[in-house]
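Board notes, transcribed. Complex of a protein with nicotinamide-adenine-dinucleotide.
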Amino acid sequence: MQPNQPHTVLITGSTSGIGLAIAHCFARAGHHVMLHGLTDADTSQALLAEFSGYSGRTGFSDADISSEAGCAQLVSETREAIGNPSVLINNAGIQFTAPAHDFPAEKWHQILAINLSAGFFLARDVLPAMRSANWGRIINIASVHGLVASENKAAYCAAKHGLVGLTKVLALENADCNVTANAICPGWVETPLIQPQIEAIAREQQLDMDTARAQLVGAKQPVAKATSPEAIGELALYLCGNFASTITGASLPVDGGWTAQ
Ligand SMILES: NC(=O)c1ccc[n+]([C@@H]2O[C@H](COP(=O)([O-])OP(=O)(O)OC[C@H]3O[C@@H](n4cnc5c(N)ncnc54)[C@H](O)[C@@H]3O)[C@@H](O)[C@H]2O)c1
């Protein structure tokens, strides 16, 4: 890969929240981006229109990556739309909270499939081309819950700890060919994913949404402020830059001090 050559960037779950902010960061910097997520045709058309102002190519896929076949479909649609991905950002994820003794099996399997297995299948499918090109970046959007636990999040914590472990293995296996693998571990980020948790606090304690949000964030983070999705995008972009070539196998908390305690 020549310096300053645009990357071809596949960002899973980029129709919303953190993934969408990452996609804007890369597109703004001149890279080709593959948008992806479960959304209707109107929303995907609107997103493609929104990205048409950038200089790079943009594609979109609504492949459901909860299965190995869905992951294969996403890689094939990415190759068609923007070329072999030189950067894979495993970002798509879901949440469901309940105590382990009451956790529905269906939710366990779904969270493991989307938050962990998809990251493995996608990495496995794109790595051969990265290795041949002698350059690549894999960035897994894990969570503080890849480093520490919280109650009621058995599946989410298991999946995110797994993703951090997977990241380290990928870093070791591909250290010979300029392919790095890193995990970003955010604390609270203001996106639709955390809305149900804010609403539950507001409902249970009869609080307005702003107070409930402050309570949720402040309960875990010394810096009682949610991170912006754009901050995660900028860090992902940095990990693809020239100064980041020796950062690999790392799990980088962006968590207002949550995991420093
Ligand atoms: N929001 C936070 O506070 C926070 C904190 C730490 C980590 N994260 C992680 O960041 C990532 C993004 O979270 P977010 O808050 O932006 O969520 P979000 O709900 O805003 O977006 C999730 C994206 O994943 C896609 N997706 C979900 N299931 C899918 C499936 N089966 N197939 C294809 N796409 C699917 C959705 O369509 C959407 O584009 C997740 O992995 C999440 O665990 C979020």
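The beta strands are 8-11, 32-36, 58-61, 87-90, 136-141, 179-186, 251-254. Residues 8-189+227-255 form a domain with the Rossmann fold fold (CATH 3.40.50.720).
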